[in-house]
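Q: Structure tokens for this one, please.
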Amino acid sequence: QVQLVESGGGLVQAGASLRLSCVGSGRAYSRLAMGWIRQAPGKEREFVAAIGYYSGTNTYYSDSVKGRFTISRDGEKNTVYLQMTALKPEDTAIYYCAADQGLAAIQRRAAEYWGLGTQVTVSS
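A: Here is the predicted structure, written as tokens:
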């Protein structure tokens, strides 16, 4: 079993930056691809970013965040980060950490493991 715990959300003004963290635990964690999915009020879950289980390789982003968000992972700390810059009000959502054996499942929002989410609110 894999457990994921997110942190780092908050209320910021447009243009600000935030860094989300997701700490993973469990025997299989280090062999899983990781990613971030968000859900805004009244909308479906949206893929944000994903990274393969080798740090620094195979990163993917949605068009809406490309160039503003950066995903990374620290294997020693069992942590995945989402550095968010130039935040916009439309980035307001609950951000979920997700893990799966395959990157494609994360991109399809069908990951096997999920955290409980952290709220990000961007005011205009």
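A few notes: The chain has a mean pLDDT of 93. The first strand starts at residue 3 and ends at 7.
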